[in-house]
């Protein structure tokens, strides 16, 4: 998501951003308005960039654990990430309960 241009604070845990395939792209591509009409092609185009990205896993992990609600991150849409985040939170709760 043109992540180098994002306002997120930079720290060592986010060094992966230096290898983002979207770092010189159009940030707007990764923030479609809605999920129908022209947004469908926009989402597919953003996902195509993510599909070539060497840090896709890191990006998706960051988006889920930091609850990035908007935009395409790690090749996933907002709705797709909500599902993944629910699963991640359930795993976190189960781990806490087991400890
Ligand atoms: S996975 Fe997609 S949004 Fe994330 S850094 Fe790579 S190209 Fe950007």
Report on the architecture of this protein.
The chain is mostly helical and 99 residues long. It has one domain. Helix content is 45%, strand content 0%. The longest helix has 21 residues, at 78-98. The mean pLDDT is 91. Bound molecules: iron/sulfur cluster (SF4). Iron/sulfur cluster (SF4) binds at residues 1, 3, 20-22, 30, 49-50, 53, 55-56, 59, 72-75.
How many extended strands?
0
Spell the H/E element sequence.
Answer: HHH
Mean pLDDT: 91
CA(first)-CA(last) distance:
36 Å
Oligomeric state, counting identical vs distinct chains: single chain
Number of domains: 1
- Which consecutive residue ranges, at least 5 long each, have pLDDT under 50? none
- The helix content, as a percent range, equals 40-55%
Determine the number of helices (DSSP H or I, runs of at least 4 residues).
Answer: 3
Structural class: mainly alpha
Distinct ligand kinds: iron/sulfur cluster
Q: For the report, how would you describe the main beta sheet?
A: none
> Over all CA atoms, what is the radius of gyration?
14 Å
What form results from the Cα inertia axes?
Answer: globular
Relative strand content = under 5%
Give a quick set of tags describing it.
globular, about 45% helix, binds iron/sulfur cluster, mainly alpha, about 100 residues
Compact summary:
With 99 residues, the protein is mostly helical.
Task: Describe the SSE topology.
Elements: H1 38-51, H2 56-65, H3 78-98
Helix pairs in contact: 2-3
